[in-house]
Every structure is written in C-alpha cells, then in structure tokens.
Specification:
Blueprint (H helix, E strand, L loop, with lengths): L5 E3 L2 E3 L3 E7 L6 E7 L2 H16 L1 H4 L3 H17 L1 H12 L3 H24 L3 E3 L5 E9 L2 E5 L7 H12 L3 E5 L6 H12 L7 E3 L4 H10 L3 E7 L2 H14 L3 E4 L5 E4 L5 H13 L11 E5 L3 H13 L19 H16 L3 E4 L18 E4 L6 H4 L6 E7 L1 H10 L3 E2 L1 E5 L3 H10 L4 E4 L14 E2 L2 E2 L4 H6 L2 E9 L10
Parallel strand pairs: 7-8, 7-10, 8-9, 10-11, 12-13, 12-18, 13-16, 15-16, 18-19
Antiparallel strand pairs: 1-2, 3-4, 5-6, 6-22, 11-21, 14-15, 17-20
Helix pairs in contact: 3-5, 3-7, 4-5, 5-6, 10-11
The structure holds nicotinamide-adenine-dinucleotide.
Length: 488
C-alpha cells in the first residue's frame, strides 16, 4: 500500500515522519497509509504560511472576497457530500446517518463564517475628547488547529472556517486515527481557489507533529479539541509562549430526568444523549440522574429500550450503534465496565462484545447501563468516552444540583421537566457550557459552544468563535489639529 501524501503549504508531498495506517473500525482492515509530518515539515509549513500571510493577495483581500472562497468550499463539500460521508464512515466507524450529519454541519459552518466574515463590524468607541477612537479586529497570524478522532470534518471545519474568515493562515493536525477527511478538505479548499500556503494539513502523532506545531514560535494560536490531559499540556506551552489557546476538552455531563418529565421524550433524549456516536462524544450525557420517585420505572424502561438499540455495520442506514474507534479504545471502555463491577455497580444491560459473528472482527461493544454506584465512584467521575451510562438517583433539586456540579468537568447538561420555572432554576444552577432543556445534542453554528472547569477554555462557533481568531488594535486619531501641549 503506497502512502497518501500530506498537504504542506500548497504542495502534496511525502512528509518526513513515519507513515501511519488508518483502519476501518468495522473490521479493522487497513483503509489507507498516510504520510506524516515531522518537526522539519512543521517548520516548513509555518514558513510557507507566514509567506502566504505576508503576500499582498491575502493581506489585502477584502472580507467579501475571503467570504467567496469559503462559500466555494461549502459548495464543493456539498457537491461531494455523500462520498465524504461514506469515507468518514469507513475512517471513523460512525453510522452513516451520523457522518452525513457531520458533513452537513461542515457545509453550514463554512457558509456561516463566510457570512460572518462579510458582515463583521469593527467598533468606533466613544471618544472622550477631540479625536476619533476605534477598536479594529486583525488576524492573529499562523494558527494551529488540532482535532480528535470522534467528529472529523465537523471539528476541522469549526476551526478552519473561522480561522480563514478572520484572515489567518491555518495548519491542521488531524487525529492520527482519522486523518482522511482533513486531507479531503485540503483538496476542496485548493479547488475553491484558496491561495497556496494558507492551509496545510499535516497528519501525524500528537507526540511528534502536534507537539512540534504547538511549540513552534511562528504559531500564534492553538485551537485544540481533545482530551483534558493533552489540553493541559498544550496550555502549559501556550503560557510560556504567551499565546492564546482555545481548549475544547472532555466531559462527564449530567442528563437529568425529573418526576414531571414527559417520559417518552426523556427516554429518547437519554438514549440519544449517551449512546449516539457509541458514546464517543465529549457531550455524552453519561451521568443519568433520575428523580427517586420514578427511578425504578424509568430505569426498567430505559434498560429495555437500550437492549433494543440496533448495533451493526455503520454502512446500514438503520444502524444506531457502530463500532468503537480502535481495539485499544474498546479495551479501555471494557476496563471501565470491569471497574464499575469492582466498585459495586450492577450492569443492567450490555457491557460486553456482541455475539453476532458478522461483527467479530470489528470494535463492537454493547451499550451498557450501570446502577448502584454513587457519584463519588471513578465510574461516575472519569470520562469513559464510550457507550456506558451511569444511573444515579436524586432526592430534590438541592441534592441534584450538588451532585451534578460535583464533577471536574462542566461541558453540557440535559434537563427533562415540564415545569418551566424548575427548568430555569436548574439551568442557571448547573455549571456547564451548554444546557439543553427537553432536548439534547441540539446544535447551531450561530450559538457559542465550549466548556467550563476541566472541559475547557474559550468558545467556538458564532461571532465569538470568529473573534477568537482575531486580536484587537486600538486606534486614536486626532481631529483637533492642535499640537500636544506638554512639549510647549
Ligand atoms: P487526544 O487528546 O488524545 O488527542 C486529540 C488531538 O491532540 C489528536 O490530534 C492528537 O494527536 C493530538 N495530541 C496528542 N498529544 C499532543 C501533544 N502533546 N501536543 C499536541 N497535540 C497532541 O484526544 P482524542 O482521544 O483524540 O479525543 C477524545 C477526547 O476529545 C475526549 O476527551 C473528548 O471529550 C474530547 N473532545 C472534546 C470536544 C469538545 O468540543 N469539548 C469534542 C470532541 C472531543
């Protein structure tokens, strides 16, 4: 198998790093060998990006012209949508209906930031004298985008589109487990007429390619999505460089069902919250709090419905649960089910490999519900990033808020109740970057997203997500014509 080249500053060529194999999680068959970048490739990509930033073409390009390029990228993703969704399904193992949604989200992201770029205001600040004062927004320079394996194309679009819209150059380091969609985006960006050098896609490991990128003095911001441990390490390097960093990290989100919830709605929301994407989702509703008064009834029905989820080949449109990303990740998730038992939990369903011979070669794992544990157990505190939901009863709002907030993370929260006053009270009391009321995993590119506490720093999406790739310049402009009096 010959290696796919990487995309370095407008050129498709082999990197100097050791190639990596990406595998189809459905059967672990090799899908592609991909060339990777070492530190010298990273240095070259940064130098070419700096040249492209300095060239008049990009520096003087007006926002509506940049917007046009982003619009063209969106149109090309739309043209190739089905091919991209199928490729992602093979690279990442998510069911095809989910990968189609991720491709659609990438299209929307490029369109949104095209529009935002064209309409973004600067500020004329109130003058306190005979002068004009302004706050101007300017690009940061060359920025790095480092992404995880769980939502390729959507994650990359969420960083590339605002970074380019803001006038930066961007170097993308996709996950070593799912490098293919970022490379496809590079092809489409070239076809859309993005000037050479402004985008590089450098596959490779975090330890080599990622670390070289973060540490490079020419990188002026890192936008990172991934685990909290990695995020902290990147944050430390950023502190030394005095460089802005945005960190979209892990979660252990509460999904809360009150006695007065619409139960049919809540059951669907809890199932979708924890088991869609096989639970490999930063916002997975993995701590399922249920009011004690309805606990037994709710858990019985939730267990029955979990057992009925359709696990299978992600190519089938009816599949709800596909394989996990890798055999190593399968072992990790399995290890958490073992830990749950050791901590005294009961596995109400799932928690083992399916018996279907057709799935034996893949990383399939049956969705599991655990009860009998407290919120203090490791199973309820650590991010499993797999299809394992922990059921936790609660007694009243105070107890619920105390338990929900007793977590290192603060990414998301779901609330199921028909009492609008209670929904408001709990939404304001829970420490989370996003709260859903009677829904879950609903997203709009026009609404900011990000985490609190160990779940991250900064916000992506929306206008805040665009300004996060810009720095402000204050400008004072004398209107009086009078010499400054001090020198007289
Ligand atoms: P990870 O932290 O292992 O890797 C993420 C990316 O960082 C990869 O590209 C990896 O190669 C790179 N990397 C690793 N070490 C690095 C280093 N020292 N310097 C620079 N780059 C480095 O995470 P993962 O296993 O790929 O993804 C799963 C995690 O991502 C979960 O914790 C999940 O919650 C989180 N996540 C968060 C969000 C969010 O928006 N908050 C979204 C998706 C996933």
């Amino acid at each position: 198998m010959s290696s796919l080249p990487l995309y370095l500053g407008g050129e498709w060529r082999m990197g100097r790093g050791a190639p990596i194999l990406t595998r189809n999680p459905h059967d672990n068959a090799a899908l592609a060998e991909v060339s990777t970048a070492d530190a010298s490739d990273v240095g070259e990509a940064v130098a070419r990006a700096q040249q492209a930033m300095a060239a008049p073409g990009w520096r003087t390009m007006l926002p509506h012209q940049r917007a046009l390029i982003l619009q063209r990228i969106a149109a090309l993703i739309e043209r190739d949508a089905e091919r991209l969704a199928q490729l992602q399904r093979q690279d990442n193992g998510k069911p095809i209906h989910e990968t189609r949604a991720l491709v659609a989200s990438a299209i929307g992201t490029f369109r949104y930031f095209a529009a935002a770029c064209e309409t973004l205001d600067g500020d004329v600040t109130p003058a306190r004298g005979d002068y004009l004062s302004m706050s101007l927004y300017e690009p940061l320079g060359v920025v790095a985008a480092i992404t995880p394996w769980n939502s390729p194309i959507a994650s990359e679009a969420q960083k590339i589109a605002p970074a380019l819209a803001a006038g930066n150059a961007v170097i993308v380091k996709p996950s070593e487990l799912t490098p293919l969609l970022a490379l496809e985006l590079a092809k489409l960006a070239t076809e859309a007429g993005l000037p050479e050098g402004l985008l590089s896609v450098l596959p490779g490991t975090g330890a080599i390619t990622g670390a070289a990128l973060v540490a490079h003095p020419g990188i002026r911001k890192v936008s990172f999505t991934g685990g909290t441990v990695t995020g902290r390490a990147i944050g430390r390097v950023a502190a030394d460089k005095v460089m802005p960093v945005s960190l979209e990290l892990g979660g252990k989100s509460p999904n809360i069902v009150f006695e007065d919830a619409d139960i049919a709605q809540a059951i669907n929301g809890v199932l979708f919250g924890i088991f869609s994407s096989q639970g490999q989702s930063c916002i997975a509703g993995s701590r399922i709090f249920v009011a004690r008064g309805i606990y037994d009834r709710f858990v019985t029905e939730l267990t029955r419905r979990t057992q009925a989820l359709r696990i299978g080949n992600p190519a089938e449109p009816s599949t709800q649960i596909g394989p996990l990303i890798s055999p190593e990740h399968l072992d990790k998730v399995n290890g958490y089910v073992r830990l749950a038992r050791e901590e005294g939990g009961r596995i109400l369903c799932g928690g083992s490999r399916p018996t279907d011979a057709a799935l034996a070669a893949g990383n399939y794992f049956q969705p599991a519900l655990v009860d009998g544990l407290s919120n203090a157990c490791r199973t309820a505190r650590e991010e499993i990033f797999g299809p394992v939901g922990v059921l936790l009863p609660f007694d009243g709002e105070d107890d619920l808020v105390r338990q929900a907030n007793d977590s290192a993370y603060g990414l998301a929260c779901g609330i199921w109740t028909i009492d609008y006053r209670r929904a408001w009270r709990i939404a304001r009391a829970v420490d989370a970057g996003t709260v859903w009321i009677n829904t879950y995993k609903l997203f709009s590119i026009a609404t900011p997203f990000g985490g609190n506490k160990d779940s991250g720093l900064g916000r992506e999406k929306a206008l805040d997500g665009l300004r996060a790739y810009m720095r402000q310049k204050s400008l004072y402009w004398d209107m009086s014509g009078r010499p400054l009096p001090w020198a007289d």
